[in-house]
Amino acid sequence: MALKRVSKKTTTGKVAKPTVTKKVKAKPTTDTTSPKKRVSFAQKLTHSKIIEEEVNVSQDFDATPTKSILKRKLPAPADNDTPKTKKVVKVAKAAEPEAAPSKSEETPKESTSTVPAAKKTAKISKETASTAPAAKKTAKISKAGAKTKLMVTKSVKEKLLNMSAKERKAYLKELKAKKKPLFELSNEMKALWEKIRSSKTPEAVKKEKVDRLFHLVQGKCAKLIYAHDTTRVIQCLLATERKDIRDVLFDELEPELVRMTKSAYARYFVIRMLKYGTNEQRSRIFKAFDGHYTSIFRVVWASGVLERAYSDYCSAARRHTIIAEFYGPEYVFLKKTGAQMPTIQDIQALPRPKQIAVAESLFEHLEGAVAKETIKHSVCHKLLLDYFTLCSKEQRAEMIDALKERVPFFCHTREGSRAAMHCVWFSTPKERKIIVKSFRDLVVNSAKDEFAHRVLLAIFDSVDDTVLVNKIITKDLGNFLGDIINEKFGQWVLHYIVFPRDYRFFLKGTLEMLKQGDGNEHTVKDAAVRYQQIFDGIKKPLLTYMAANMRTMLFNKLQSVLVLNILEPPVDNEPFERVIDDEDKIACFKAIAEVVGEDFVPYNLESESHIIEAGCARFVLSMLLKRDAQQTGPKLSDYLAELPAEQLASFIAVNNGCFVLRNMVTSGSAKAKEAVKNAVTVKALKKSPHIGAQHLLTEISKA
């Protein structure tokens, strides 16, 4: 008989009716004792892959196949075996109500096969439905290992059909109780849990229920902690914040800590104990983990527990002992002896073959983590950095090839960002393109991150394909300047584009770290050309933004330095020569002159200080005026000279204002010198008590 795939269950509770080439009808069996509509177990019996008629699903039964049904494809039977196959299929369909319980009552999932699958009891799979020889036997309970397996037959199916809804519910509950020895205890626990967590329950009643619940679970926690429902009940006891209960539960479950950490549900108990337990209990958890960190790291959800313990509750010494287990078996043995664990610097001092062996051990643990969520954990980032520190050139190339598409996943931590920089520095041009493309739509967040922005700086230093860099990275920076320029590390990225390796702005440690990538074999373009092309990609939007927001930027400490760096003439040790269009420079100089032309009230304490008295803004103005003579093209002093004479004359009321006018005379254009001479008088300067007025008078007399 030809088989066709069944369609998915519809929202109305019906299964679609596919076409079947051959049908074998069964005798109809009806039940008039119950007024409710129920699944007909005998009228149209089919396998989940052979649906001959529409099956209406009542509120008591659900025809949706269980997860195990979808694991393997059902092989098509031979034509001559059709009747026999059909008979087995009937039994399989009969067991589906137990395999898929209704929403109103949890029913056991029962198996029709004698295949030794004791760990997956109460599930109906395709191959068990097609090969179940136990269909001709009566219903019986058999033990397979430590678990109970229920054999469902046609007689049980017909027995369920002849029952009322209430009787069927009780019977299925009885079957489930036989299958799960702790079924009644579980139900009682959950009933108490509902009362405890309800806001309507009085405090006195809650306390009584907590005591009752604790009495029920005590001594049985190791059996209850691994189920998805009962583990939440046990966690509820931890949430009561009663130290006596917490201590007893922890003492009982301490031998299970490693196994619980690897469990999808029980791991939450370990997480809660790390958070709410005492320091002594945390130490016992770490002691239980000793020697098992590598196996914990390999399990995805267990690695999440390890990450939380490593990043939130470990001292530096304990972190080091955790990482040492990944260096190889000899270091695990050394740890058991109580000897001091060697640091990565100690391993670097060992002979080269020893370093390569440690790198190989690290690679074995990291290879499986690259494609998992584990790649986001700081434990993995530390291992990656140690690997790149010790590995050979061939090992490094192999790891970079595995990481090239996932660099944004691990560049958000200190160690992860440094490992990502190694990927950028020592990757091939083809791999660098993949790394740059992996930052698509992540550039803004990376630029604002404390550590991820370093990877962008490494890209600016190493990637010769500036067209791609401008398309993916620089373009996004220009489009979202308003967000980036207001963030500390975003400003650092913009500073680096304007003035790479600026020794006046960046810390010495940052510059030393960036120099590690210099001289790599895959960067061949001249640095000055590369920096110039990257700057050209953001120059226009950056200068446009500056002209429109000049006042805000001048009064911000970091942003004011960016204004100075981009508008000042070339300085010594500058990596490349910035070329700015005259129209952009004029727009910025006019914006500065507009800020200088604001009303000036000396020593005004009621409003924001004028640029003449403001610290960072005055510094930028003075530095630009001091070097105005070296400007090619438009000069700032020309636009300051257009201010009213009364405005310029008011500056001599403060000492800083006198020095601003002096800089206009000494370094400004002839137009600026003339404007200052016309604005201030010698008599006023002689009466001024400020030393800056005397310097200004001297320069005016020379001019």
Structural features, described:
57% of the residues lie in helices and 1% in strands. The chain is mainly alpha-helical. The chain folds into 3 domains: 1-176, no CATH class; 185-533; 581-702. It has a two-stranded antiparallel ribbon. The model is unreliable at 1-148 (pLDDT under 50). Residues 194-562 form the PUM-HD domain.
The main sheet orders its strands as 1-2
Q: Could you give a short account of the major beta sheet?
A: 2 strands, antiparallel
Radius of gyration: 38 Å
- The assembly state of the depicted protein chains is single chain
Overall structural class, as computed from helix and strand content, comes to: mainly alpha
DSSP helix fraction: 55-70%
Tally of helical segments: 40
Our measurement of the CA-to-CA distance between the termini, rounded to an integer number of angstroms, reads 109 Å
The stretches of 5 or more residues where confidence is low (pLDDT under 50) are 1-148
Number of strands: 2
> Tell me, what's the shape?
elongated
Q: Give the tally of structural domains.
A: 3
* Mean pLDDT figure: 80
Q: How much strand?
A: under 5%
Question: Could you give the topology of this structure?
Answer:
Elements: H1 82-94, H2 96-99, H3 126-130, E1 140-144, E2 147-151, H4 154-161, H5 165-179, H6 183-197, H7 203-217, H8 221-224, H9 230-239, H10 243-253, H11 257-261, H12 267-276, H13 279-289, H14 293-298, H15 300-312, H16 316-324, H17 329-336, H18 344-348, H19 352-367, H20 378-390, H21 393-403, H22 414-426, H23 429-438, H24 443-448, H25 453-462, H26 466-479, H27 481-484, H28 488-498, H29 508-514, H30 527-548, H31 550-554, H32 557-567, H33 582-596, H34 615-626, H35 636-640, H36 645-650, H37 655-667, H38 670-679, H39 682-687, H40 691-702
Antiparallel strand pairs: 1-2
Helix pairs in contact: 6-7, 9-12, 12-15, 19-20, 20-22, 22-25, 25-28, 26-30, 28-32, 30-33, 32-34, 34-37, 37-38, 37-40
